[in-house]
Each structure stands twice: as structure tokens, then as C-alpha cells.
From TrEMBL:
The gene is rnhB. Keywords: Cytoplasm, Endonuclease, Hydrolase, Manganese, Metal-binding, Nuclease. Residues 72-255 form the RNase H type-2 domain. Endonuclease that specifically degrades the RNA of RNA-DNA hybrids. It comes from Metabacillus rhizosphaerae. It is found in: Cytoplasm. This is Ribonuclease HII. The lineage of its organism: Bacteria, Bacillati, Bacillota, Bacilli, Bacillales. GO terms for molecular function: RNA-DNA hybrid ribonuclease activity. Its main location: cytoplasm.
């Protein structure tokens, strides 16, 4: 061990997968402060990875249950954008590969923007099929946000290249001839729903970033269409755009 530099030990530790590894045990006996710091850093990351692994497998319980009941094309469905004053409501349907492994995946609201982008790409790599449904503000105004949300979800399912035989939904029920389960706070309890929430969120955010370029005075890139103080002030000052939901109270009052 004394023949190895701290850098060499760091490189070796980066390759170790188990806390039972003989090299790790040897490192623990090294008296050098730098080596002990590396060991502590490795142990901390190992414990964090273990927690994420356990979380991921616990979030597969609904998928496992569906598999055990004979369903093997399971789509997670979720939406983003029910509450904003502007922009579309976006839903995603995701059928993941059975062997997928994405520790750290969670409800899109619990992930930072860079993490959402990271998982967006990981989900695309680990999915058998992805469908996206987008319902524009004018349709939301015609049929109401609840019906628009269901429409977005149905459209997302239609867009799948492979049609599912089981749906996992976040607190919703769809009038479709497909077996399904509605889960309260499903985006934190099911890997498939969490994956669909990330796909929907990143997709919608990208749409809002494009709208922000067309209407920079509203700063849609900052609030994504939600009714923040700045957004409400911009509405008062500049008026209603084609992207605003005219049936929503704060917008409706300005017409």
C-alpha cells in the first residue's frame, strides 16, 4: 500500500463496487490522512448509492405486481402543466424495458433541471416506447383543464409505437379498454410514472423556452407560465397572448 500514491489509490477505489473488497479494507489501515479522506468519501458515496438503489427497487413494486398478473407492456402516464396560466398541458406515456436500472429517478418536481435533462436521456435509452400528448391553450379553454389533461394522456398513449396492456397513472382514471391502476402520488411511488413525469416536464419546459423567445417581456423561461408575481404584472402591462389560457381567472379578467 505504501508504494501507491494517493492518486493511484483514488483511481483504484473508483473501480470498487463492494464494501467487502480487500483493497478497501487495506486502505482503511493506511495511516495517511489523504487516504483516510478517500476512504470516507468512498464510503459516503457507497451509502448514498445503496439508498438510491433501494429506492429504485421499491418504486418497481407496482410494475412487479402487474408483471406477476401477466402484464408485460406497462406504460406509466403522467402530465405536467395543469396549473399554469399559459402554455399547453403535456402528458407522457413511457413503457420501460423490464431490465432498466435508473437509481435516483423520481418525480420531476423533486429533480433539478440538470438532473431532469440527465434522466430525460437515460429514460430514452431505457424505454421500449415513449409517447407524448400536447393539448394547446385554446383546447383547454374549450373543454376545461381536467378534460384536457385526460385528452393529453390519451394522445400520449396513441403516440406509443408499442401499445400497452396495462397503465399506471398518477391519481387519474382513463376511459380506455386497457387495464389500469391509479396511484395517489404515483410519480414518487412508481418508476414508470416517474419516468413519464420527467419526459412530460422536460418536453413542456422546452416548449415554454421557445415561447419565451417569442415573448421575452413575459419571462416565460423563468416561471414556465405559472402565475408568479412577475407574470401577473406582465399580464397587466402587456396584455394577453395567444399562449394564455383565457378561461383561467387571472387571464379572463383582463379580456
Amino acid at each position: 500500500m505504501m508504494q501507491l500514491t494517493t492518486k493511484e489509490i483514488q483511481d483504484r477505489l473508483s473501480e470498487i463496487k463492494s464494501d467487502k473488497d480487500p483493497f478497501l479494507k487495506e486502505c482503511k489501515t493506511d495511516s495517511r490522512k489523504g487516504v483516510q479522506q478517500l476512504v470516507q468519501k468512498w464510503m459516503k458515496k457507497y451509502e448514498q448509492d445503496k439508498i438510491l438503489q433501494q429506492q429504485f427497487y421499491s418504486m418497481l413494486s407496482y410494475e412487479r405486481s402487474a408483471h406477476n398478473n401477466g402484464f408485460h407492456l406497462i406504460a406509466g402516464i403522467d402530465e405536467v402543466g395543469r396549473g399554469p396560466l399559459a402554455g399547453p398541458v403535456v402528458a407522457a406515456a413511457v413503457i420501460l424495458k423490464e431490465e432498466c436500472y435508473m437509481p435516483g429517478l423520481n418525480d420531476s418536481k423533486k429533480l433539478s433541471a440538470p438532473m431532469r435533462e440527465k434522466f430525460f436521456n437515460l429514460i430514452k435509452e431505457n424505454a421500449q416506447a415513449i409517447g407524448i400528448g400536447i393539448v394547446a391553450p385554446e383546447v383547454i379553454d374549450q373543454i376545461n383543464i381536467y378534460e384536457a389533461t385526460k385528452l393529453a394522456m390519451k394522445n400520449a398513449i396513441k403516440e406509443l409505437e408499442i401499445q400497452p396492456n396495462f397503465l399506471l397513472l398518477d391519481a387519474m382514471k382513463l376511459e380506455l379498454p386497457i387495464s389500469q391502476e391509479s396511484i395517489i402520488k404515483g410519480d414518487t411511488k412508481s418508476v414508470s410514472i416517474a419516468a413519464s413525469s420527467v419526459i412530460a416536464k422536460v418536453t413542456r419546459d422546452r416548449i415554454m423556452l421557445d415561447i419565451a423567445k417569442q415573448f421575452p417581456e413575459y419571462s416565460f423561461d423563468q416561471h414556465m407560465g405559472y402565475g408568479t408575481k412577475y407574470h401577473l404584472e406582465a399580464l397587466q402591462k402587456y396584455g394577453v397572448t395567444v399562449h394564455h389560457r383565457k378561461s383561467f381567472a387571472p387571464v379572463k379578467e383582463l379580456l
